[in-house]
Amino acid sequence: MILKTLAFIALLGVSLVRACSEDLVGNGGALHSPNYPDNYPNSAHCVWTITTDPGTRVKLTFDTFGLEDGGTHCSYDSLVIRDGNNKTTDRLSRLCGGTLPDPVIASDNALYLEFRSDSSGVAKGFHAQWSAINSTGSTVGYSQGNSSSSSSSTVVVVAAAVVVVVVVVVVVVVVVVVVVVVVVVVTLKINIFYRKFVLKP
Ligand SMILES: [Ca+2]
């Protein structure tokens, strides 16, 4: 029981650490595939939303790019980029293979990126810079950078800590209950033994 609980905690911790989705807010920063510059893992699913200042447009420029090549439909691993802040917005591109993509520019101040890998075949992944540009195409100065990204990490750490505390409390309660039951049973047995063999002549 305790070993199973500990294994559960370990698995939960690993899955929380591997979470790779981020909300990126500000006028510049970088993002990359999980484990970059090492190969991304199988069965990964990451979503990034990028939001720059109102009135600007998001520009995404890739430094490196390499996903398992799944043909024109990117049937194996893919990075889908959408023109907005959610998965229902227009798709700008669906990327895979080893060709460095051209910069992607949103029509407004938000981009939505969704990376998926299938169950086999991995590659290096990608690394990209995002920035805010104005109506003339010039880069707008940095504002908050990756502030929201670091707060996402903090949320993950706090969530993991809360889960661990809750599980520990449950384990302690179960152990206390078991000990109480054992003590009651042993006491009853001793009582019966005493009445049967000691009190009777
Ligand atoms: Ca793959």
TrEMBL record:
Keywords: Disulfide bond, Membrane, Repeat, Signal, Transmembrane, Transmembrane helix. It comes from the Eukaryota. SMART domains: CUB. Gene3D superfamilies: Spermadhesin, CUB domain. The keyword DNA-binding does not apply. Residues 1-19 form the signal peptide. SUPFAM superfamilies: Spermadhesin, CUB domain. Residues 20-133 form the CUB domain. The chain crosses the membrane at residues 155-188. This is Tolloid-like protein 1. It comes from Elysia marginata. The lineage of its organism: Eukaryota, Metazoa, Spiralia, Lophotrochozoa, Mollusca.
